[in-house]
Amino acid sequence: MLQLTHLIKSLYLLFLHFNINYSSSPPAHLKISIKSVNMKHHLIWSPWQVSCSTVNYTVQFQGEYELHKLNGSWVDAHDCQEISENQCDLTSDLASNSDYYIRVMTKCDNKTIWTRLPLTFNRRNTVLLAPAMTTVIEGDLVQVGFSPILPDMTVYMESWSEGDEQNALIHVIRNYPYHFSIATHRGEKMCFRAEALVEAINKSCSIHTRCISTPETAENSAILVAVSIAVVVVVALAIFLGCSTTRFGPYIKQTIRHREPLPNVLLDDRLISTPILFIDVSMEHTDPLLLFCPAEIQYTGVEETG
Ligand SMILES: *[C@@H]1O[C@H](CO)[C@@H](O)[C@H](O)[C@H]1NC(C)=O
Ligand SMILES: *[C@@H]1O[C@H](CO)[C@@H](O)[C@H](O)[C@H]1NC(C)=O
Ligand SMILES: *[C@@H]1O[C@H](CO)[C@@H](O)[C@H](O)[C@H]1NC(C)=O
Ligand SMILES: *[C@@H]1O[C@H](CO)[C@@H](O)[C@H](O)[C@H]1NC(C)=O
């Protein structure tokens, strides 16, 4: 046992020795690293230390396709040819789930020096930050929104009434603006939880549970008042129109008769029914305030891959 511990210690020291030696050995090389968050890939490197009158950098990459199908050729990164900056946005270049080799060529006067990224990079290793979930109450609806969203993201949202999690409903949200409306009852506490999936890399992140209560009565009475006012206005209008029809009836009759000659019996019928018709239409107009809007699953047929 003691021997084993000793052996491990020795191996560890040996490892440290090689590691330090390795990292301190290339004196005139760049330190390259890649940072990838939310599918945005940024290559960065330390500035060239050796003095030269002009220095610039060129980035190249090689995926599995170039390696196996194109005889191991290298591809120039789109925006990073002979640049003076110490960074390069490789987001549009590394567009498949391949293991990429990446290298930087430093041009210092007449010399060119190649430095490789020590490990291959795969965009599946990107760090996904969960989008923020917002919940807003609008009347009897809870509006749930997610942002920021990546181009290829699908949000799987679960919603349930507090205490009834086993009967949670799952909603799939695929398209911009990633909003979702859910009908609730007054005073009900609704809970939401979501999973955001980037299909291109089959990687997801969780959005924590959040619960929200719809207010008991305050808005209810506000809506009632609004509806009552609307009804009063409609009735008043109807009465006014009814009076106008009686008073100006003959003129209207004449006009209508002029446009489309109808038998008198029909004409009278129509005029009597006019105010009633108006009430119907207006009542319908105020209805949406009371309507129970079914929660719709937003869906788009567009599938983005690659
Ligand atoms: C790869 O190399 C072989 C032989 O060296 C050649 O015949 C072929 O055309 C090359 N392919 C490409 C895509 O360059
Ligand atoms: C990059 O550096 C090389 C060598 O120093 C030079 O010949 C070339 O003109 C430079 N390119 C740019 C765009 O400055
Ligand atoms: C560049 O190379 C030429 C010959 O190849 C040499 O004469 C010149 O001194 C070099 N310049 C620098 C800055 O190293
Ligand atoms: C995606 O990942 C899950 C595990 O996280 C796995 O079960 C599933 O098969 C994967 N799907 C594809 C298409 O690779």
Characterization of this structure:
This protein has 306 residues and is an alpha+beta fold. The chain is 31% helix and 30% strand. The protein contains four helices and 14 strands. The strands form four sheets. It has a four-stranded antiparallel beta sheet. A four-stranded antiparallel beta sheet has the order 11-10-13-14, with no helix packed on it. It has a three-stranded antiparallel beta sheet with strand order 1-2-5, with no helix packed on it. β8 (132-138) and β9 (141-147) form a beta hairpin. α3 runs antiparallel to α4 (264-286). The two termini are 52 Å apart. The site of one 2-acetamido-2-deoxy-beta-D-glucopyranose has 5 residues, from loops.
Summary of the model, kept short:
The chain has 306 residues and is an alpha+beta fold. 31% of the residues lie in helices and 30% in strands. Pfam families: Tissue_fac (PF01108).
Share of residues in strands? 25-35%
Q: Termini distance?
A: 52 Å
Order of helices and strands: HEEEHEEEEEEEEEEEHH
Identify the quaternary structure here. Answer: single chain
Major sheet: size, sense and barrel closure? 4 strands, antiparallel
Low-confidence stretches: 13-27, 259-306
CATH class of the domain at 19-125: Mainly Beta
Task: Please count the beta strands (DSSP E, at least 2 residues each).
Answer: 14
Q: What value does the Rg take, in angstroms?
A: 35 Å
> Which strands sit side by side, in order, in the main sheet?
4-3-6-7
CATH topology of the domain at 19-125: Immunoglobulin-like
CATH architecture of the domain at 19-125: Sandwich
Shape: elongated
> What's the helical proportion of residues?
25-40%
Protein structure class: alpha+beta
**For this structure, what is the CATH homologous superfamily of the domain at 19-125?**
Immunoglobulins
Average pLDDT confidence is 74
Each distinct ligand: 2-acetamido-2-deoxy-beta-D-glucopyranose
Count of runs of 4 or more consecutive helical residues: 4
Keywords: Membrane, Signal, Transmembrane, Transmembrane helix
Signal peptide: 1-23
GO molecular function: cytokine receptor activity
Domain Fibronectin type-III: 13-112
